[in-house]
Specification:
With 413 residues, the protein is an alpha/beta fold. The chain contains 19 helices and seven strands. A hairpin with a 2-residue loop joins β6 and β7.
Length: 413
């Protein structure tokens, strides 16, 4: 007898429903979100035929959390069903739009019974790949937090201290540079900045890690911080300086977190067997490679062909056809993290690969905008990546971007 399990997830408890192949309810339970609840669930599954040789599949509306991790560790098929998809299935069971936790668990179990092939099973990634995913995603979140904190600080400084922004604008990294952050911490207001001596500026530069060109930079900052500018009232300016220091503290924390997480993610990524293949691609370094591995994993059965990987990444277009209407558009539903690193990868490959540059230029020539041409190039590179990972071979420029026949003949001659 085939048995299917649906779990309606919540923060402190979970509703469980088991049904047979005909959709008949076999058992239901509410378990706590702790070790005792997990054991209760495993005992319930074992009672209805769960064994190491034949695991009962489970459908749940999340791919994260301790419950999901423990269920995956048992080796059973776990399906993370999108809540929007589950809501559409719910309408097959009730037309009055009633909702309950038990009904949701039943709906999830029935999804497996009727349409398991239409939903993606959570991949059987290795422990190392899962650890890389945790660090790479956390690092990406820290970068986004750093960008947000930097934008808030820049917006605040523009209201009372535009001279500082002008002074650090030419510095590599701008406001993100260690020098810019150290200088703002030393003098958060125009009044304090204008009183900085050359000796104090030299100390700021050394504290920020500057080793060369110190004298020239001291003179430049000394002059830039004394350029006349519009000012707030003295008390208001001082208060806004205190606010700037608070925003700077958040910005510093985000910068430190991003740097430390990047180092940890790269360290784990370089221990993975796929690291050498991934970083052999033009435009992919250790950190961007870690982000790619974090999203595609190392379960080679996850993507049966390159087309499914491209759809998952959002690089492949989606076609909408109805009657005489036919439209090909960019895919909006996708893995946003993989799409984000994809644009970085495609852009970086333009200077690292002559074939990638020629492909991008060709797409621009036929009328693609910059973003569309980048997405098309990313789509091409993803196909190459799928091939290389499947066949355990490094990237080859001549295979990925073969020369046109006429050009190849000219080179041979």
């Amino acid at each position: 007898m085939r048995v299917f399990c649906g779990i309606d997830w919540a923060s402190d408890h979970h509703d469980v429903a088991l049904i047979d192949g005909d959709g008949k309810l076999l058992a239901r339970a509410r378990i706590a979100d702790d070790a005792a609840g997990l054991q209760q669930l495993l005992d319930l599954l074992a009672e209805y035929g769960d064994s190491p040789g034949e695991r009962i599949p489970v459908a749940i509306e999340t791919s994260r959390g301790l419950l999901v991790a423990c269920l995956r560790a048992t080796g059973r098929p776990v399906y993370a069903v999108n809540p929007m998809a589950a809501a559409r299935y719910r309408e097959r069971h009730t037309v009055v739009r009633k909702k309950s936790d038990h009904l949701d668990a039943m709906v999830l179990a029935n999804i497996l019974r009727t349409d398991a092939d239409a939903h993606r099973q959570l991949p059987a990634d290795s422990e190392l790949a899962q650890a890389v995913a945790v660090l790479a995603r956390a690092q990406q979140d820290a970068v986004w937090d750093r960008t947000q904190a930097g934008n808030k600080l820049r917006s605040h400084l523009r209201e009372y201290f535009p001279g500082y922004l002008a002074a650090v604008q030419s510095t590599t990294g701008g406001i993100n540079a260690p020098l810019a952050r150290t200088l703002l911490a030393a003098a958060p207001t125009p009044a304090q900045a204008s009183r900085l001596t050359r000796t104090q500026l030299r100390a700021v530069l050394k504290r920020a890690g500057r080793q060369r060109g110190i004298d020239a930079e001291v003179e430049r900052l000394h002059a830039a911080l004394r350029v006349p500018q519009m000012r707030q009232l003295p008390l208001v300016e001082k208060a806004m300086g205190r606010q700037a220091l608070a925003l700077l503290g958040k910005f510093e924390a985000a910068c430190t977190a991003a740097d430390e997480l990047a180092e940890a993610a790269v360290e784990l990524f370089e221990r993975h067997p796929d690291a050498a293949i991934i970083t052999s691609f033009p435009g992919l370094g250790a950190l961007t490679g870690a982000r790619v591995l974090a999203e595609i994993g190392d379960d080679r059965s996850r993507f049966t062909d390159a087309t499914s990987l491209k759809a998952y990444a959002g690089s492949a277009p989606v076609t909408r056809a109805s009657g005489k209407s036919h439209a090909v558009m960019a895919r909006r539903v996708k893995n946003q993290r993989l799409a984000a690193v994809g644009y970085v990868w495609a852009f970086a490959s333009l200077n690292a690969s002559p074939g990638a540059r020629a492909h991008y230029d060709r797409r621009r020539t036929v009328g693609d905008r910059h973003t569309s041409a980048q997405r098309n190039l990313y789509n091409r590179l993803l196909g190459c990546l799928h091939h290389c990972l499947t066949n355990h071979t490094p990237y080859s420029e001549s295979t990925a971007f073969p020369a046109p026949p006429k050009l190849a003949l000219a080179i041979a001659a």
